[in-house]
């Protein structure tokens, strides 16, 4: 009998299927193996899967051997989880686009995966000031001593400071990579990488051998936010990947905490904007612990908590739906926009605004699409609305 995880691999071989659509398929049919045998009519009942994609699925799946793909995949990637595996991190299943495959290396803590051991993400700029680095160290040490797992992205700067402080306190830390789990990036963090393997966990949605690619890192940030109960932004300029993590945290109903900085510090301007939009301010170690202690349980949070703060222009985007304004701003698109980004803008303009609809229309995988959408947001061309929907600015 072919295992369920073989079908997760098989589904990812079908063009147009990414993390969000595959979650919808899994939830609708109850298993990806059962969905593999679904009829054309049944496939069309899944949210985001229309007639065109259903026909593609039917025509492509006959050419795919799930069992053979699993055997080949295990040769280079022996350690990974799928959402149907009992060890898959439970918190990630709460997000709209959980990675269908989560590769790991290091020490597995099942209490962590089941959500019984709380985790807090700490992220920020690669070029922190002494103030930002020192406070990252202090906060990471305090949270570690209080029993929290520290989640970050193993980038230079704030991420490195957070991981290092946690390890020095003999704590537990998780590094979420934008490469394969066998690739050390940046190379300066070779020693840190080895220490995390011995004392924590390294995870990625990308298979072994995946080299650094700028499109992978914004998508990676959703996993950082998804694994944690709260996200701390320690220092971040106005165009920072850490702000993408904060947006995901808001979308996933995670609390966001921000270290206040100076208006004279360019590396703090993104943090100040988050504070202006309602994020929690970090006023010290003890105050932070008290605020975190007040966080409701995640299930109740998902049901009862509205967006705690809108992280920028959501209210403006909901109000600004006048067609003339959209057309005017469309004409302001940069002339040298990359073809993939231009295609996404055209798709949103054509009234396909949900993540699933954009993925289906552009035939982009979820990772690449999320990275491109985040890039367009940072460029000020689109705004993310509640429910993973997008609108032209």
List keywords for this structure.
single chain; about 400 residues; alpha/beta; DNA polymerase, domain 1; Rossmann fold; Arc Repressor Mutant, subunit A; 3 domains; 9-stranded mixed sheet; two-stranded antiparallel sheet; 20 helices; 11 strands; about 45% helix; globular
Structure description:
This protein is an alpha/beta fold and 393 residues long. The protein has helices spanning 4-11, 19-29, 32-36, 40-43, 51-61, 66-76, 110-113, 130-145, 158-168, 190-199, 216-227, 241-251, 269-276, 285-293, 298-304, 314-319, 323-330, 339-349, 355-362, 366-378; strands at residues 80-81, 102-106, 119-123, 149-152, 173-176, 201-204, 230-233, 255-258, 280-281, 382-385, 389-392. It folds into three domains: 4-76, Orthogonal Bundle (DNA polymerase, domain 1); 92-304, Rossmann fold; 314-392, Arc Repressor Mutant, subunit A. The chain is built from 20 helices and eleven strands. The strands form two sheets. The chain has a nine-stranded mixed β-sheet with strand order 1-2-6-5-4-3-7-8-9, sandwiched between helices. It has a two-stranded antiparallel sheet with strand order 10-11. It is globular.
């Amino acid at each position: 009998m072919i295992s369920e995880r073989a079908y997760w691999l098989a589904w990812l071989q079908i063009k147009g299927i990414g993390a969000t659509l595959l979650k919808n398929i899994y939830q609708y049919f109850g298993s990806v193996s059962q969905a593999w045998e679904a009829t054309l009519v049944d496939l069309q009942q899944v949210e985001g899967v229309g007639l065109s994609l259903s026909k593609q699925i039917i025509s492509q799946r006959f050419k795919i051997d799930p069992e053979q793909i699993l055997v080949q995949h295990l040769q280079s990637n022996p350690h990974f989880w799928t959402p149907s595996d009992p060890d898959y991190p439970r918190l990630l299943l709460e997000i709209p686009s959980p990675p269908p495959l989560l590769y790991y290396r290091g020490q597995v803590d099942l209490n962590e995966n089941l959500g019984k051991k709380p985790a807090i993400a700490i992220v920020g700029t690669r070029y922190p000031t002494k103030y930002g680095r020192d406070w990252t160290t202090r906060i990471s040490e305090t949270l570690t001593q209080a029993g929290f797992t520290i989640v970050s992205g193993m980038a230079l700067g704030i991420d490195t400071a957070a991981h290092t402080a946690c390890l020095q306190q003999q704590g537990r830390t998780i590094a979420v990579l934008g490469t394969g789990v066998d690739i050390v990036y940046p190379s300066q963090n070779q020693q840190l990488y080895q220490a995390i393997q011995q004392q924590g966990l390294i995870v990625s949605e990308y298979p072994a051998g995946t080299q650094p690619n700028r499109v992978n890192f914004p998508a990676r940030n959703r996993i950082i936010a998804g694994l944690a109960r709260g996200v701390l932004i320690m220092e971040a300029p106005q165009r920072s990947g850490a702000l993408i993590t904060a947006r995901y945290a808001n979308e996933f109903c995670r609390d966001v905490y921000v270290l206040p900085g100076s208006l004279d510090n360019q590396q703090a301007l993104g943090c100040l904007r988050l504070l202006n939009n309602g994020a929690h301010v970090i006023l010290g170690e003890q105050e932070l612990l008290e605020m975190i202690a007040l966080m409701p349980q995640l299930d109740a949070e998902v049901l009862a908590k509205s967006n705690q703060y809108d992280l920028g222009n959501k209210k403006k985007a909901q109000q600004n739906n006048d067609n003339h304004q959209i057309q005017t701003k469309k004409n302001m698109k940069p002339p040298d926009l990359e073809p993939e980004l231009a295609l996404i803008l055209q798709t949103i303009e054509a009234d396909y605004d949900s993540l699933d609809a954009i993925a289906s229309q552009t035939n982009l995988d979820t990772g690449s699409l999320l990275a491109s959408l985040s890039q367009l947001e940072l460029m000020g061309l689109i705004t993310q609305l509640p429910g993973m929907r997008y609108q032209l600015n």
